[in-house]
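Internal tracking record. Fields below are filled automatically when a chain is submitted to the structure queue. Please do not edit lines marked as system-generated. If the sequence contains nonstandard residues, flag them in the REMARKS field before resubmitting.
Queue: standard
Priority: normal
Entity type: single polypeptide chain
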Amino acid sequence: MARKALILIEGHRGNGQLYVQAAQRLGLHPITLSADPTQYEYLAAENLQTIRVDIDNLDALIHECARLHDTFGIAGITGFAGDDESISATVGKLCRCFDLPGPNPASIEQCYDKFVQRQLLAEAGVAIPAYRLAANATDVESSAAEIGLPVIVKPAVGSGSMGVRLCRSIDELAEHTAYLLEGKHIWRSPPRVLVEEFAEGPAYVAAVMGHELVGIVAADYHPPPHFVYRECTFPAPLTDEEHKRIADVSLGCLPALGLDWGPKSIELRFTKRGPVVIEVNPRLSGAPTPLLIKLAYGVDLITEHIKLVIGCEPNLCKRESQIAVGRFLVADSDGTLDWIDGAGRAAALTGVAEIRLYVKSKASIVRKGDYRDCIGHVVAASPTHAHTEAIVQRAIASIGWSITPLPTVDEREKA
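SYSTEM-GENERATED OUTPUT FOLLOWS
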């Protein structure tokens, strides 16, 4: 009997291959629709079926899905936000067109607009940072004055911490405003800037499926002004009271935003006044969070999400009890990556579950102050937090790289 198709809108450098493998284990035929399938190496490496199509053209997507439905039959449709959170809304529209389980596109759209999201959460009484919307440099400056420095300045629509910066002074505020509004930042929507209070405190991410909290990740960032992940730990080391407070606030976001289906990733800070919601993302967290949850609890969120997509009941019951840690490798300078080595040695260490490098030798490294600065990650798990951290540290010490810096302006002029 022919396998039904699982349609994947776009790919993903972290979770994409895991979705393909999970779909195949479930007896499905994964087919990726992408504006440029060649950007995802795993598609060619595994000889997977791909179709090049304009992802921004809903009619073109409907046409391709209708053709695939006639050929294979479609079991479900899902996709990956990547740099563009609107893809989740497109998935919802396709699911409705073909009468398949999926997210409500209207809820997704009001969620990925962070200003609208802020308004809805505030109306529902959810704790959030003070915020203002700005259209120009004057608005940004006055908003920061009203809120009080330091402030977070970021695009109202965006993903992966792209364009997000902590501004502690008027000079930093002016510099980042110019970066966002004077052509350096790539906008996927009309330019609008969100100015927010800096909520200080430990960072957490709540993983939710449907209306159920799967668990809470402790997130650690590299030093400001940017927000580049350094490490993730699952489950987060919390007291019962702290866990309950984060869970209550996280689940309180769902009715406010109309998010009653599928995976959600809710970012919070535990401040002096308690948990404060930074952002609600109507999708699964990127790698390696799904692997951390699988190692620690035995729950494969990617497989369970696909089950939901094809109309089956997910199983979120905890079956393991370990501490999993993911540490990111981050480039320490711009330039050309001469070599990166030691992944094999690190992978051979007992307790290491995954070593993944996102770049290869001779790659150009240009740090952006967002998720693109990460050049790989290490994941390990063991029964205790201290032991897992020790394994990760040994693995990190086994990996080395060399970057030839870009020439300075003076060096270029002399040349």
